[in-house]
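Q: I have 217 residues here and want to know how they pack in 3D. Can you give me a structure?
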Amino acid sequence: MLAIGLIMAGIACAIFVSCDRDDENTVVLNDKQSGADDDNVPLSVGATRGVTMNFANRSSVVIPDHGDDYPWKDAPYSIKKCYGEAFGFCKRHCTSWVAHKVNQMWDEAKGMCTEGSFRNWMHGVHVSHAFTWKSRLQQIGYRADNNPMPGDVAYWGGKYPYTQYGHVAFVISVGSDKSVYIQEYNRRGKGKYSTRTIKPGNWLYPHSFIHVQHEIE
């Protein structure tokens, strides 16, 4: 039933995307390290904030670090029933949160509102549950590897400890040792926002990182 709900949400994708901006609330990369694994301290938040990354022959990328700015944080939530949203995912699920952050990042790069370009159906591919994101996004043309970058999708496959459907989160910053500071929703199946820093070697470190900093046209 959940899969059917996801499909129906993807087909009947109403446009409701907030394009408000907070240009001062972005992240600057540095090599500062936070404390223990799985804490809530960002790896790289400094007094100066601004554009974080530049890509060859591409526009600069601003990493949207606005805290819990999710537009459906007060919406109904169920782990068994899908309440669809504008991107075609289920409200307050991890996939919906990451779609929200990726769309913010793409909007900043383009200087315009894309009204939900990252969505459950893209280029004829159904992105679907978190555990299918890596293979489905690779079908579209996005790269995935074990080299984290700010703006990546942190990806856990079907063996993620809390759910059979895998998990995804949004990477805000990366340390010199490849520690990642992530923001996420629905980590433990509660439909809530959370943040954490995870170091390599931790059993909860992401299985892979999907590079979605720029939209594939």
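Q: Anything worth noting?
A: The chain has a mean pLDDT of 76. The domain at 1-217 is CATH 3.90.1720.10 (endopeptidase fold (from Nostoc punctiforme)).
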